[in-house]
Amino acid sequence: MVSIKVLGGDGEIGGNKILVEHKGTSIFLDFGMSFKQNGLFFSEFLNPRKCSGLGDFFEFGLLPDMKGIYREDYLEHMGRDVEERSIDAVFISHAHADHAQYIHFLRWDIPIYCTDSTRIILECLQKTGSNTFSDLIDACETFRFTRTKKGFTRIKRSYHKEYIHKRDFQTMEENKRISVGSFEVEMIPVDHSLPGSCGFIIYTDEGNIVYTGDLRFHGSDGHLSRRFVEKACKAKPKWMLCEGTRIDSNERDSESDVRAKISELISQSDGMVLVEHPIRDIDRTNSIFTAAKENGRNFVVPMKLAYLIENLGTYCPFCLDEVKILVPKKRWGLISKVNVPEGEIDKDYAKWERDYIYRWNSVTCKDLNESPEKYVVSMSMWEIGQLADIKPLNALWIKSSCDPFCDEMEIDEERKQNWIRHFAIRHESTHASGHASGDEIREMIREIGPEILIPIHTEREDLFDGLVQS
Ligand SMILES: [Zn+2]
Ligand SMILES: [Zn+2]
Q1: DSSP H or E stretch at residue 139
Q2: Ligand 2 centre distance from Cα of residue 232 (Å)
Q3: What are the pLDDT digits (tens) for 235-285?
Q4: Is 376 within 8 Å of 275 (Cβ atoms)?
Q5: Which residue, 14, 460, 347, 328, is CA-closest to 194?
Q6: 217: Cβ–Cβ under 8 A, 6 or more apart, which residues?
Q7: Which ligand is nearest to the CA of 96?
Q8: Which listed residue, 4, 315, 434, 453, has the most CB atoms within 10 A of its CB?
Q9: Does residue 469 register a pLDDT over 80?
Q10: pLDDT at 258
Q11: What domain range is 410 assigned to?
Q12: Going by C-beta distance under 8 Å and a sequence separation of 6 or more, which residues neighbour residue 157?
């Protein structure tokens, strides 16, 4: 018997954790964070406490209380016995937090299967992110002491390399099925707002399962999603786990329209252009890069994005030498000072940021202030403080990201509007979603024709009723 349990992503957008079991083999499809459940109890300033190990996560339904899947150090800290591993593998469809963030809590000996780009993005997130729970690529033992000459000391990632455990990442390639116990799993790339996104077909001797992950048909890689549908159709699946983020919307989006609109807006502007966009959506980043180039301007990226572009290598359609990198003032702000003692500027930055400080294509807020008409600048609420140094005149802000969908985002949006008014910046917007529209989802289901349809990643499961004849 094949058993499919949706332990996250049921009746909500994201938090996907799907347990599939068959003849003694158990796998998870994604292991993400539920923004909805988290938002009920926590906020930017109130997080589940690390000191409780998994306790707060179990208490508020953020993680399923299951045996044999969680990391030893957390279990021991909670006074639980060490458990036998109960899961054979986890398959990650893409590196968005609602699909991958909670890998942090998993045992480090569980194999994690994903695409190469997904692994690279997870590595960048771990290195450059600010999240407390970001042991994604490797895990450093927590709540443990080690003996020193003077007594005991707490284990620290930077000092005690021997307590860092590399997770068992396995790269999946197209057309190469992976065997895990009684399953064979095929990875098929799809178009979504993050590089490396894929869907899966899971083959069993009692029927096949199709899992869409998150997907759309209107991005630069729309052909990938169409090929996914063809392959899924050929697998004659018994079950289909289908994402339905936009099942209730028939609005037609297009990434190429977004690129054209950004280009047009830049061409009409004679001051600085600031673009707000999802930072890891390389498709959008490429749209902005192309639009800037069409208008003879340089695209300026923050250091986090520079790090991602560099690490993605050929998975990114342009290279780091083709953009400018903004080095902001940090800590003591010594970047803009003269006669600074040697080595002191470096100390203002994290280790991974230091390579960018003196790179030939790095710029500072002073450069942007002096020649605003030369640049299109990647901007977000994380970076907005730099406007106080840039002091833009006659600037344009293009919002190229989704509308706020929770209270915190609404408040951020209001705050952003205050910054924009303060600097008399004009505001425009253009965006295309990372998800297929209702019509496209219905068409995909009709083509694939599963026997059993399981809606996930949607708040409108009711709209899936009657889409397959049972
Ligand atoms: Zn998602
Ligand atoms: Zn996603």
Answers
A1: strand 138-140
A2: 20
A3: 999 999 999 999 999 988 899 999 999 999 999 999 999 999 999 999 999
A4: yes
A5: 14
A6: 191, 225, 226, 436, 440
A7: 2
A8: 434
A9: no
A10: 97
A11: 255-429
A12: 140, 164
Whole-structure pTM value: 0.96
| Ramachandran angles phi, psi of 95, nearest 5° | -90, 10
Quick: pLDDT tens for 125-176.
999 987 889 999 999 999 999 988 889 999 998 888 999 999 999 999 999 9
Characterise 261 by phi-psi region: left (phi > 0), alpha (psi -120 to 50), beta (else).
alpha
Residue in 166, 173, 204, 206 with CA at minimum distance from that of residue 188: 173
CB 163 within 8 A of CB 106: no
Q: Give the whole-angstrom CA distance, residue 369 versus residue 356.
A: 20
The encoded tokens of residue 237 equal 């699946």
At 357-385, the pLDDT tens digits run: 999 999 999 999 999 999 999 999 999 99
Expressed in angstroms and rounded, the spacing between residue 122 Cα and the centre of ligand 2 is 13
Q: So what's the pLDDT on residue 470?
A: 61
Q: How far apart are CA 250 and CA 243, in angstroms?
A: 15
Ligand sitting nearest the alpha carbon of 197: 2
DSSP state of 80: P
> For the chain, what is the radius of gyration of the CA atoms?
23
Angle, helix 116-128 to helix 303-312, in steps of 10 degrees? 150
Q: How far is the CA of 100 from the centre of ligand 2 (A)?
A: 10
Q: Say whether both 235 and 194 belong to one domain.
A: yes
**Token pair for residue 240?**
């289909």
Ligand that lies nearest to the alpha carbon of residue 216, given by its number in the listed order:
2
**Tokens 């205050």 map to which residue?**
418
Distance CA 220, CA 296 (A): 23
CATH (domain of 387): 3.40.50.10710
pLDDT at 406: 83
- Give the number of domains in the chain: 2
pLDDT recorded at residue 374: 97
Closest ligand relative to 14 C-alpha: 1
Distance 194 CA to ligand 2 centre (A): 7
Structural element, H or E, at residue 289: helix 282-294
Assess if residue 65 is contained within a domain. Answer: yes
Residue 258 tokens, joined = 């977004």
How many Å lie between the centroid of ligand 2 and the Cα of residue 428? 25
Residues 191 and 63 in one domain: yes
| pLDDT, tens digit (0-9, with 9 covering 90-100), for 72-95 | 999 999 999 988 999 999 999 999
469 part of a folded domain: no
Residue pLDDT, tens place only, 424-466: 999 999 999 999 999 999 999 999 999 999 999 999 999 999 9
